C-alpha cells in the first residue's frame, strides 16, 4: 500500500486493506471480434493467483483517479481488477461511439472468463459512464456476474439526454468538450484546459445548436450531431444503446446490485426506474441516496464503501466486516440521507411505502396553500392568472440543480427569483417539519399564444432570513396537441420533478418557481417547431399561469408521515 493510497483510504473511510502489495500488468491487449484491440491494466493482490475478477470499463483513461480508486484500492481488498479503456479512448483502438458498449463488453467478459487466473466469478464497478458499461455487459456475463457497484448511473442515457422532452445541452456539450480534451494528448490538453469554461460558455449560447460542437471543440463531433438528429423516442440509434432490457436478466441471475444516487444527480430519476424494475423482477438491490451532485467525492466514497461490502459478501459468502450493518442492510435495503439536515432513513423499499402525497396550490396573491383555490369565477369574468414571459433571446438561466459540471446542486436563488420571467409563489411559515421523501410532480395550467414552449418548475426551501435554495425541479417541453388545448384555450402541463429527500424545517417556507426554461441546462426553446439542431429564429413566448378553482396549478410532494 503506497502512502497516497493510505491517505486516500482514510479520506474515503474504507476498511483496512487485506494486502498492502498489489502488482499491475499494464497495457494488456484484448482483441475484439472485429479486430480492434482494447487495452487494460490488471491489478492483482499479492498472493492471489486465481479468484474473482472485477471489471471496470471506462472512457476516461486508466491512469489517475480511475486506476487508483477503482483499480488499486479494490485490489488491496483482495480482488483482481481489470480496468479497461473503452474503444477509441486512451490507447484502445477503434472509434468511440458513446454508449454503444454491449459488443465490446461481451467480448471482454468472454476473454476474462477464459483466463486461468479467473475462477468464473465476476463483479463490476464504477460511476456514470462506468456504470452504463456494467449494464451493457451484464446479459453476456449471465450467472458469472455476482455483484455490481452501479454509482450515479442508469441502464440507458437516452432519457437524461432529452429530459422532459427538451435537450440537456449543458451535459451533452460539456461531456463532448471533455472527451475531446482527453483525446488531445498532453500538449493539446493544456491548451484546451486554459481556454476552459469560457469557450464552452460561448458554445452553449451558439445557434443553431448543431454549431455547438464546432464552437466548443473547434470541429465537428459526430456523436453530438447524432444526439441532435436522433431525438425521436423510437430512434434505432438509442435502441442499440438501451440496456434496460438487461435489468430483468440481472434480477434473474441473482446478482447483488449496489446502487448509489444523489438527490441532485443527473441520472437519479432513471436510476430509480432501474431500481423499480429490479424490484418488480424479484431482486432486492441495495439503494443508497444522499445529498450529492453527480460524481461528488462524498457520494462516490459512500458508493465505494457499499460496493466493497457487497463484493465481500458475494465473493466470500459471508457478511464480511459488515456485522450489524450488513444485517440492517438486508432488513432495510434502502438508505437515504436527507438534505436540509434531515438525518438518515433506513427503508424497506423505494418509494417509501408509508409516504403520503401533499399538494400545495398556487394562489393569485403569489402564496402557496394546502387549500385548493376558492371558486370565484361563477357568474363573473375569468379570474386572472399570473403573466410569465419567456424570451429565448434572453433565456431564463439555470441556477444550480442536477447538472454534470459547473455550479450544480443547491444554490442561492435570490438573483434568479428577482427576474421578471420567473413567477414565485411562497407558503406560510411552517409550524412543523415537512419531510419530502419520494416522487414529486406539478400540474401547471396555462394559456399561451404559441403551442411550442417549455414549462420549468422548481421547489425551493426558504429559511427565516429569506434565503431561497433549490430542492427539486423539472421541465417539460410542449408541442401542438401535447397536451391538448381545452375548450377555454388552456392547457394542463404535467411536470415530473426530480425525486426528493429533503427536510423543510419548522420556521421555513416552501417556494415554487414557474418559468419558461433553465438555460443552458436545457437548450432554450426557440418557440418554433424547427428541428432540434436547426432553429435560429427566436420567438417570444408569453404565457399566463392560471391558479383558479377551474385551473388549480399545484405541486405535489410525497411526504413522510408525522411522527
TrEMBL record:
<dbReference type="InterPro" id="IPR029058">
    <property type="entry name" value="AB_hydrolase_fold"/>
</dbReference>
<dbReference type="InterPro" id="IPR050585">
    <property type="entry name" value="Xaa-Pro_dipeptidyl-ppase/CocE"/>
</dbReference>
<dbReference type="InterPro" id="IPR013736">
    <property type="entry name" value="Xaa-Pro_dipept_C"/>
</dbReference>
<dbReference type="Pfam" id="PF02129">
    <property type="entry name" value="Peptidase_S15"/>
</dbReference>
<dbReference type="Pfam" id="PF08530">
    <property type="entry name" value="PepX_C"/>
</dbReference>
<dbReference type="InterPro" id="IPR000383">
    <property type="entry name" value="Xaa-Pro-like_dom"/>
</dbReference>
<dbReference type="GO" id="GO:0016787">
    <property type="term" value="F:hydrolase activity"/>
</dbReference>
<feature type="domain" description="Xaa-Pro dipeptidyl-peptidase C-terminal">
    <location>
        <begin position="322"/>
        <end position="556"/>
    </location>
</feature>
<protein>
    <submittedName>
        <fullName>CocE/NonD family hydrolase</fullName>
    </submittedName>
</protein>
<keyword id="KW-0378">Hydrolase</keyword>
<dbReference type="InterPro" id="IPR005674">
    <property type="entry name" value="CocE/Ser_esterase"/>
</dbReference>
<dbReference type="InterPro" id="IPR008979">
    <property type="entry name" value="Galactose-bd-like_sf"/>
</dbReference>
Amino acid at each position: 500500500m503506497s502512502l497516497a493510497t493510505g491517505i486516500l483510504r482514510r479520506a474515503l473511510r474504507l476498511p483496512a486493506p487485506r494486502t498492502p502489495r498489489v502488482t499491475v500488468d499494464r497495457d494488456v491487449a484484448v482483441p475484439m471480434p472485429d479486430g480492434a484491440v482494447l487495452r487494460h491494466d490488471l491489478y492483482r493482490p499479492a498472493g492471489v493467483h486465481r479468484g474473482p475478477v472485477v471489471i471496470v470499463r471506462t472512457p476516461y483513461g486508466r491512469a489517475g483517479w480511475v486506476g487508483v480508486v477503482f483499480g488499486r484500492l479494490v485490489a488491496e481488498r483482495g480482488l483482481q481488477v481489470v480496468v479497461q479503456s473503452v474503444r477509441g479512448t486512451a490507447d484502445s483502438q477503434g472509434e468511440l461511439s458513446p454508449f454503444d458498449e454491449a459488443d465490446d463488453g461481451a467480448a471482454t467478459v468472454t476473454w476474462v472468463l477464459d483466463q486461468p487466473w479467473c475462477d468464473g466469478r465476476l463483479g463490476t464497478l464504477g460511476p456514470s459512464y462506468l456504470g452504463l458499461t456494467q449494464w451493457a455487459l451484464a446479459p453476456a456475463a449471465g450467472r458469472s456476474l455476482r455483484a455490481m457497484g452501479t454509482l450515479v448511473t442508469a441502464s440507458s442515457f437516452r432519457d437524461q439526454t432529452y429530459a422532459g422532452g427538451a435537450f440537456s445541452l449543458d451535459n451533452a456539450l460539456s461531456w463532448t468538450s471533455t472527451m475531446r480534451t482527453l483525446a488531445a494528448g498532453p500538449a493539446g490538453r493544456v491548451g484546451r484546459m486554459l481556454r476552459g469554461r469560457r469557450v464552452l460558455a460561448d458554445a452553449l449560447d451558439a445557434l443553431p445548436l448543431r454549431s455547438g460542437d464546432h464552437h466548443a471543440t473547434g470541429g465537428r463531433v459526430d456523436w453530438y450531431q447524432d444526439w441532435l438528429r436522433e431525438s425521436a423516442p423510437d430512434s434505432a440509434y438509442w435502441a442499440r444503446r438501451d440496456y434496460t432490457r438487461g435489468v430483468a436478466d440481472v434480477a434473474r441471475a441473482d446478482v447483488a446490485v449496489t446502487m448509489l444516487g444523489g438527490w441532485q444527480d443527473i441520472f437519479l430519476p432513471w436510476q430509480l426506474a432501474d431500481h423499480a424494475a429490479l424490484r418488480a423482477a424479484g431482486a432486492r438491490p441495495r439503494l443508497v441516496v444522499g445529498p450529492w451532485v453527480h460524481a461528488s467525492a462524498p457520494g462516490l466514497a459512500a458508493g465505494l464503501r457499499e460496493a466493497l461490502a457487497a463484493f465481500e459478501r458475494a465473493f466470500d459468502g459471508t457478511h464480511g466486516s459488515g456485522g450489524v450493518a450488513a444485517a440492517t442492510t438486508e432488513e432495510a435495503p434502502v438508505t437515504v440521507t436527507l438534505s436540509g439536515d434531515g438525518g438518515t432513513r433506513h427503508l424497506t423499499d423505494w418509494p417509501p411505502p408509508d409516504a403520503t402525497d401533499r399538494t400545495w396550490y398556487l394562489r393569485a396573491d403569489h402564496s402557496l396553500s394546502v387549500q385548493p383555490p376558492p371558486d370565484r369565477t361563477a357568474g363573473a369574468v375569468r379570474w386572472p392568472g399570473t403573466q410569465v414571459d419567456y424570451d429565448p433571446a434572453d433565456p431564463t438561466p439555470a441556477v444550480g440543480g442536477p447538472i454534470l459540471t459547473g455550479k450544480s446542486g443547491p444554490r442561492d436563488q435570490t438573483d434568479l427569483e428577482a427576474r421578471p420571467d420567473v413567477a414565485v409563489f411562497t407558503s406560510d411559515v411552517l409550524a412543523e417539519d415537512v419531510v419530502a421523501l419520494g416522487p414529486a410532480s406539478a400540474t401547471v395550467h396555462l394559456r399561451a399564444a404559441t403551442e411550442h414552449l417549455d414549462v420549468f418548475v422548481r421547489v425551493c426551501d426558504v429559511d427565516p432570513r429569506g434565503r431561497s435554495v433549490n430542492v427539486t425541479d423539472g421541465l417539460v417541453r410542449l408541442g401542438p396537441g401535447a397536451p391538448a388545448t381545452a375548450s377555454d384555450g388552456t392547457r394542463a402541463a404535467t411536470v415530473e420533478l426530480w425525486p426528493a429527500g429533503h427536510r423543510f424545517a419548522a420556521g421555513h417556507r416552501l417556494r415554487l418557481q414557474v418559468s419558461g426554461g433553465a438555460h443552458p441546462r436545457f437548450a432554450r426553446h426557440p418557440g418554433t417547431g424547427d428541428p432540434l439542431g436547426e432553429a435560429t429564429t427566436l420567438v417570444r413566448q408569453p404565457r399566463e399561469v392560471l391558479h383558479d378553482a377551474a385551473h388549480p396549478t399545484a405541486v405535489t410532494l410525497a411526504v413522510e408521515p408525522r411522527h
